[in-house]
Amino acid sequence: MRQKVRDRGVHVVIVNSLDRLSRDQTHQAVLLNEMLENNVVLESITEPITEPIDDSPFGSSLRQALAFAAAIEREKIIERSGRGAQNKVEKGQLIGVGKAKYGYEWGDEHHTHYIINPVEARVVRQIFAWYVNEGKSIRGVAARLNDASVPTTRNSAWGNTSVWCILKDEFSWQGRQSQSAAVL
């Protein structure tokens, strides 16, 4: 988006709310300044801006106030997230609400523990076998998985990052050490 603004490839930038542009005061100021310099209008869906935010003293004050409000909201989100994570830790729960790590599934509806997914665990063991025993590169492992049409948790192609995350994960290493590798 920034490049299109600088290239004057857009006339209007539409955001849901101004804090979605950026929650950091400095970043928001830079973005708004780039829009002003390139005659790009900023529109917010949920916060009506009756006048364009220009570089007048009023516009500058308004930009600073909006950026300050976004920064305060960002701090509140960080604090709430930290409190929620701490609460889960105190209850002995794992922190995570989305999909379980590859090779595992959630053991209950509250995500308090993992259980091994036998189909994915076999793939994890194979990843380790190719990487450790055969000396395949991470890219080579990903290519083999894609060539074998092994599904990922999100039904996308295997990439270097996906393989690396499995290889560096402590849970995967524990599973790897306790079971021998099986061939796909």
Topology as a string of helices (H) and strands (E) = HEHHEHEEHHHH
| H/I helix tally | 8
Largest sheet: 2 strands, parallel
Q: Identify low-pLDDT runs.
A: 175-184
Radius of gyration: 24 Å
Total number of strands: 4
Estimate the helix proportion, in percent.
40-55%
**What is the molecular shape?**
elongated
Q: Provide the structure class.
A: mainly alpha
Mean pLDDT figure = 81
Measured distance between first and last alpha carbons: 43 Å
The largest sheet has its strands arranged as 1-2
**Beta-strand percentage?**
5-15%
Name the descriptors.
184 residues, mainly alpha, two-stranded antiparallel sheet, 8 helices, 54% helix, elongated
Q: What's the structural blueprint in terms of helices and strands?
A:
Elements: H1 2-6, E1 12-15, H2 18-21, H3 25-37, E2 41-44, H4 57-90, E3 104-106, E4 114-116, H5 118-133, H6 138-147, H7 160-168, H8 170-178
Parallel strand pairs: 1-2
Antiparallel strand pairs: 3-4
Describe this structure in words.
This protein is mainly alpha-helical and 184 residues long. 54% of the residues lie in helices and 8% in strands. It is built from 8 helices and 4 strands, in the order αβααβαββαααα. It has helices at residues 2-6, 18-21, 25-37, 57-90, 118-133, 138-147, 160-168, 170-178; strands spanning 12-15, 41-44, 104-106, 114-116. A two-stranded parallel ribbon has the order 1-2. A two-stranded antiparallel sheet has the order 3-4.
